[in-house]
Design goal:
By secondary structure, the protein is α/β, with parallel strands linked by helices. 45% of the residues lie in helices and 25% in strands. Strands 3, 4, 5, 6, 7 and 8 form a 6-stranded mixed beta sheet that branches. The protein is globular and about 65 Å long. The mean pLDDT is 91.
Length: 266
Amino acid sequence: MALKCQTLKKYNIFVRENPEHLIGQSLEIERSMDQMLENRVTYRVWKQVPVEEKKKMKIIENTVEKNEFIEIMKVEMNQFASHVDRVRRQYREIKTLKESLKQKEILVQIDFAENYSCKSLAEVQSAYWNQTPVTIHPVVVYFRGQSKLEHKSIAIISDELSHSTSTVCTFLDSLIPVLKEICPNVECVHYWTDIPSSQYRNKTIFDLVANHSSVYGIQARWNYFESGHGKGPCDGLGGTIKRMADEAVKRGAVVIQDPKEFFDGL
């Protein structure tokens, strides 16, 4: 919708930058479009287009009748309003959950970080083009301490490069014993993740949640952030880990050529 808002600005239609204010401006925008748009409107949109036998996302221009463009904007404005409302509610829910977290409950935020590319302080030119990637899966665990909410940061390092559901399940097999060490009397774990269907939002994960108690001896609930709003402490943790690795390499303290050396070096 951002590209369509740019089109409105070309017609001198005032569009607010703040999403909350933009939603409240919807009726005003509809009236302005009806008065100020030309009979045919050219706007830009992201679309998958074939490029050398593959499909890539590119910005293309599209031209439609004025009334059709107005209807498109109405639909997208309503969808955006619902999207923002869900984002607000989710942030309220996770805040409330943290504040009311019980002694026998833990909250776990997980997410894949961008892969780390192994590097050396002094490497030959050809090594730059053959860097070995490392999978980093940050985990932030919240639990109720003696008097306040506490948290613990964990990072799973792996040479498995497929960020898939099977990888997630394998990581959970390693994570659950650690969670039981952090909170020995844990009875329920609340997972919070973003929503890629290739990783966290699919039938395999739903089945895992349904059978979590029998598999791990702990009940589970899986919560999802709205699309595009899954940023959180895991992103900061992943960035910090990669920065620490880079700094260690630059100091000459370690040589990182594979996932094991990455793990040992930190």
